Amino acid sequence: MHLRARFFPLFLVLPGIWLWVTGCVKPTPVPLPPEEIVKRSAGRMKGLSGFHFVIDRSGAPAFLDNEGTIAFRRAEGDFVSPDCAVAKVRVITPGLVAELSIVSIGIDYWETNLLTGEWEELPPNMGFNPAVLFDPKIGFQPILESDLINIKLVGNQELEEIPGKLLYLLKGDLKGERLYEMSYGMIGPDQVSVQMWISPDTFDLYRVVITDPPATNGEATIWQVDFWNFGQAVTIVPPAGK
Amino acid sequence: MKTQTPQPHAALIIALVSLPIFIGALDLTVVSAVLPHVIFDLEIPLQSGLSEAAWLVTGYLLAYSVAMTFMGRLSDLVGRRLVYLLALVIFALGSYLVAVGEAWPTHLVLRFYYMLSPLVTGRPDPQRISLYVLIAARMIQAFGGGAMVPVGMALAGDLYPARSRAKVLGVIAAVDTAGWVVGHLYGGILVRYLDWRMIFWLNLPVCLVAFISIMVALTKLPHPNLGGKMDWLGAILISLSLTALNLGLGSDIEVGGQLGYQSNRDWVIRAAPLVMAAVVFLGLFIWRQGRAKDPLVPLSLFRQPNFASASLANFLVGVSLFIAIANVPLFINTLVAPTLEQGAWDSGWMLSALTIPMAIASIPGGWLTARWGYRWPGIVGLSGAVIGFILMSGWQATTPYAHMIPHLILAGVGFGLTITPIASAAINAAPGTHRGTASALVIIFRLAGMTVGVSGMTSYGVQRMDTLSALLLPPGADITKVAEVGMRVANTVIDETFRIAGVVCFLALIPIFRLIISKTERVGAVSAPRE
Predict the structure, then answer these.
(1) Among B111, B127, B473, whose Cβ lies nearest the Cβ of A115?
(2) B479·A88 Cβ contact <8 A
(3) What is the helix (H) or strand (E) element at residue A156, kind and residue range?
(4) Of B132, B222, B300, B413, which is most buried with the most CB atoms under 10 A?
């Protein structure tokens, strides 16, 4: 009786400690299947009113023209759903690095002349157009949804550019045929490997790295596509005087 | 320290301090040979990056000139050894940072930027950050390189008696000039066989050897103990003036000005406030120098007609000289050479046709000055340079090197004949106590002219290319037509800038005409600095 009386307060405290500990430790979330993560991410991207993007090519060159003289290097710009984009594209020609600006609004497409900087209207489907690249119906998002195979969730990883935020890292392969058409023949048509960094909270796709193996022995072409400013729709207007 | 005989080992000390001065001056023009490689390696777009890349040259000239204005004075106060060794370390650090600029320094800047990402929007282009890091590194390098010159000159004052001081000052000035005269050739040769970064790596062992030997050699050097205070306000004002002028002249210019919805027609509007700020800061600097107890630049020097005229002439010579130094590689790289390597190699050798005759002609320039005075060798020399520039303005892409070489030699000999009388007139006009300052000012005025020349010509060239391309290129032209018109336009613009250099040279004749020899002054009595 005496002993029970001594330990009685402990019986009151222990359940309190148990409640406190269990309340502080978050339950480990059951990870979603990788296919589901990609599906949610693609769905999220399709629903965005706009975003900022950077496409960066390294490794073996990828050419914008059939003659193999104008190599794509980098593009940075904004996409506004469903069919508008503005971007600056850096290209490498023999002995020269140049930059051209692009404005695409629906079927209208303007590009600056490499030398003069004057805006020129180009026919639809001619030249590199990010509006086609990110088109919610035929662009990158639906390709991710339907053409991705062997997808695996590798773990969580932080990107240097976004310190303090853990993202899902997924790896897989992407069928190359549609990617080849969508990318003006710069990526594919063979299967390519892909890595994706997706936010576990919002399912925003922060980064995609596509490794396009060489047709024969040689260097692979690596495409890194970064996205940010999700849901931000900038105002895109035709170039002055157009 | 008033001495009648040179201090022991004075010649050795001057030789030791001259080596890093030479390397510092070498790096001033070495970049003209490697710039196309740097631009291509860093993937700097021609349209939006050219004016920024030009800061690899302008930034060096600017920091070099700024350091020269006050580091000599600082060494009066805290000691030559400390300031010289500090300058050497700064130069070596800058060289190292240029060599590795694209690696960890760029990464460090990017990391810092990402840490601030909640505060700043967007992400920087890593290539642009690399360029900015390289520009900053070049400026660090230049600050050290420029600081060594006036400290070296002040050392000459400490080590030599007044009667032989001018000769030693002339030697240091000649070493400095020799450095930037051969820089492009050195760069052209190295870049043909090695990576451009190697040029900056090679500075490090030289700096290490120089550091140890100078540290030992200057151990017993007594403190100059000149007293007074450092005019930091004056140093800040002149630095702000030079910086604003350079920023103004190179203000945000783009080839293809319509890119980014911005027109080059607004350039004057953007440049004018900065140029005006430069004038205001210069005015404040002059005001400050008039009132400071220990001014950086004694204004009394400019009351000497010969000093004022020689300074103006020196500035104009600097403008036209650097147009030649910048334009010859540009012409060869853009219009003649099939590859960047070939371009660097050819540019180096072709520029030597200008700079080597210039260095050689400075010797008869000294003799002629002793015989005829300052005016006539200057007039003859500048007239030769004007004719040289007129001939250069006729160059076409098809002009063979054999035809270009005599034009370059003519201009080079002209400059060589001119530089010595101008420098002698300025230094001889200064009283004995200010000869060191006058010697430094001779270099500063030429450097200021070179800085203005390169900034002004970049802005002018880029604008003219834009205007002419828009006039000559039909809308929707294919890539072959674009390339063909581009070459034609580049040829026209470069030829125009040669003509402008000729006009600037012609204008320099006006102050040269004003140079006089007073009845009491015999030129030959004071050793003219040979450059």
Answers:
(1) B473
(2) no
(3) strand A148-158
(4) B413
